[in-house]
Design a protein that fits this description.
GO terms for molecular function: oxidoreductase activity. Helices cover about 45% and strands about 15% of the residues. By secondary structure, it is of the alpha+beta class. The chain has a domain of about 110 residues: NADH Oxidase (3-Layer(aba) Sandwich), CATH 3.40.109.10.
């Protein structure tokens, strides 16, 4: 009910607050957003004769990776035969991610996109993290025959889909392929598909979401990264576009008021219940060790998982509340029988419709 009231209020206000002018402004906002989305989520040239142009294109593919609140918390440095990925602490989320775990997971996601895109640009890529010295994730490149893979083709199609899925189970072969893609050095993925197992995860999601929603600092941080209309999303090139969650556009001032009025723990918990119960399964990524190198590897594993899912027509979305709260994470790990390491990510997966996309900043904004 809260969600329906929010959508009705936002739609009426966004389209009718200024009569015909409001309708025109909405149409312009949609057009601006759609142009930006089309320019962002696309394939470029499969190979570049100019090395620097090829490296810039690799970075563009890397930036299509997910990041917490779509903060895009990374910087890239180009060298003759390498791309370095560094954390951008100015874009960290200190409330939801106080130890920068998600930040380093995001760096791993970006690195995996770069690794998967490199063959299409005529390179072989090896990524290694120098955590002791400078917190640099170095992606070394060597010339190689140009080739396109299914995971590369999936990069501009992948999205974090914040809608409901269709409840249909995946085949054993599809689950096997997802598990293989999501496993790495010191990182494993557990696939939960039974109704009882999903309900147990939902209990932790609801507990975590309820605690987070009671924290004014969490709500302020989240709200700061929401882009309530397409024009604002295109202008900043970052953050969570309201349309990506199925919400209508509204002027920023009005969107903020509606957010304050309708964004409640009860409404969000109801939404998460529908999303979990419509999923084909939930994937939990687990690191053997709780350190930055393994967080990066978890990001790489998740990104391969998400790209493989996309390649077979399966969508993914995050449900990270059980692992974001330090007070809840040990109980969640114990419930899964995890005695060593850290549960990094909780991901629901299944088949469902595409949603509007979050956007990305220009390349020059992330290049050093």
């Amino acid at each position: 009910m809260e969600r329906r009231r929010f959508i009705a209020a936002a739609a009426l206000a966004g389209l009718g607050v200024a009569g015909g002018t409001g309708v025109l402004s909405h149409r312009q906002s949609v057009a601006v957003y759609e142009a930006a989305a089309g320019a962002t989520w696309r394939h470029g040239e499969p190979a570049q004769r100019d090395t620097r142009a090829a490296l810039r294109e690799l970075v563009r593919y890397a930036t299509l990776a997910p990041s917490s609140h779509n903060t895009q918390c990374w910087k890239f440095a180009l060298a003759e035969r390498s791309v370095s990925i560094l954390p951008d602490y100015s874009r960290r989320c200190p409330v939801v991610d106080p130890d920068d775990h998600h930040l380093f997971v995001s760096l791993g996601c970006a690195a995996e996109n770069l690794v998967q895109a490199a063959p299409a640009m005529g390179f072989h890529c090896e990524a290694a993290f120098d955590g002791e010295a400078a917190e640099v994730l170095n992606c070394a490149l060597a010339p190689a025959p140009s080739r396109r893979t299914a995971l590369f083709e999936a990069i501009p199609q992948r999205q974090s889909t914040r809608g409901e899925f269709d409840s249909r189970p995946l085949s054993n072969e599809e689950l096997r392929r997802l598990e293989a893609a999501g496993s790495g050095r010191g990182v494993s993925v557990r696939l939960l598909t039974g109704a009882q197992a999903l309900e147990r995860v939902l209990e932790f999601v609801v507990a975590g979401n309820t605690a987070q929603m009671r924290d004014p600092a969490f709500v302020r941080e989240l709200k700061a990264w929401i882009r309530f209309n397409g024009s604002d999303a295109a202008r900043t090139g970052d953050g969570l576009f309201a349309g990506a969650s199925g919400n209508p556009s509204a002027p920023a001032w009005l969107g903020g008021l509606l957010f304050d009025a309708f964004f409640t723990a009860a409404a969000e918990n109801d939404k998460y219940a529908r999303q979990v119960r419509s999923a084909a399964g939930i994937a939990v990524f687990v690191s053997e060790r709780d350190d930055r190198a393994h967080w990066i590897e978890a990001g790489r594993c998740f990104q391969r998982f998400a790209l493989q899912a996309t390649a077979i027509g399966v969508r993914t979305a995050h449900l990270n509340q059980p692992v974001e709260l330090a007070t809840l994470r040990p109980a969640f790990a114990a419930d899964l029988g995890i005695t060593n390491g850290r549960p990094d990510l909780v991901i629901r997966f299944g088949r469902g419709p595409a949603m509007p996309r979050s956007l990305r900043r220009p390349l020059d904004a992330v290049l050093l």
